[in-house]
């Protein structure tokens, strides 16, 4: 049964490794592009997500998500901010938080705020 998620669509999601690894395991990686127009992940998240062996369920779907460019990979511009956040988190989570902050700042500048 298909569920209509069109009323929930959000422009952009900053994505962390957990959902990228686990949604393909249950065959639901498609939920991300159904709800978000665009996915944005830092380099560390891509590295962590694709590090899995070939036998991991859903790895092919994950590779395709990166290949079709729905899931865009962007490096963070402030490695110092990543180091500050990383005291309690792993690198992918830290980069995802910093990338979210950077993208929000860039969007505000673009809108003239």
Keywords:
113 residues; alpha/beta; three-stranded parallel sheet; globular; disordered C terminus
Q: Strand order, biggest sheet?
A: 1-2-3
The rounded distance between the terminal residues' Cα atoms is 43 Å
The biggest sheet amounts to: 3 strands, parallel
Task: Give the tally of β-strands.
Answer: 3
Order of helices and strands: EHHEHHEHH
Per the principal axes of the C-alpha atoms, what is the gross shape? Answer: globular
Mean pLDDT: 80
Number of helices: 6
| Radius of gyration over all CA atoms, rounded | 15 Å
Q: Could you list the spans in which at least 5 consecutive residues all have pLDDT below 50?
A: 107-111
Instruction: Give the proportion of residues in helices.
Output: 40-55%
Structural class: alpha/beta
Percent strand: 5-15%
Structural description of this entry:
Helices cover 51% and strands 14% of the residues. It has 113 residues and is of the alpha/beta class. Helix 3 (43-50) runs antiparallel to helix 6 and helix 5 (79-85) crosses helix 6. The model is unreliable at 107-111 (pLDDT under 50).
Condensed summary:
The chain has 113 residues and is an alpha/beta fold. Helices cover 51% and strands 14% of the residues. Strands 1-2-3 form a 3-stranded parallel beta sheet.
Question: What topology emerges from the helices and strands here?
Answer:
Layout: E1 10-14, H1 17-25, H2 31-35, E2 36-42, H3 43-50, H4 59-67, E3 71-74, H5 79-85, H6 91-110
Parallel strand pairs: 1-2, 2-3
Helix pairs in contact: 1-3, 3-6, 5-6
């Amino acid at each position: 049964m298909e569920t209509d998620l069109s009323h929930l669509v959000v422009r952009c999601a900053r994505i962390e490794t957990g959902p990228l690894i686990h949604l393909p395991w249950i065959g639901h990686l498609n939920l991300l592009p159904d709800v978000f127009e665009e996915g944005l992940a830092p380099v560390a998240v891509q590295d962590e997500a694709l590090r899995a062996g070939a036998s991991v369920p859903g790895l092919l779907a994950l590779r395709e998500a990166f290949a079709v460019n729905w899931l865009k990979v962007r490096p963070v511009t402030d490695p110092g901010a990543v180091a500050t956040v990383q005291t309690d988190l792993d690198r992918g989570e830290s980069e995802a938080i910093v990338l979210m902050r950077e993208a929000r700042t860039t969007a505000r500048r673009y809108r003239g705020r």
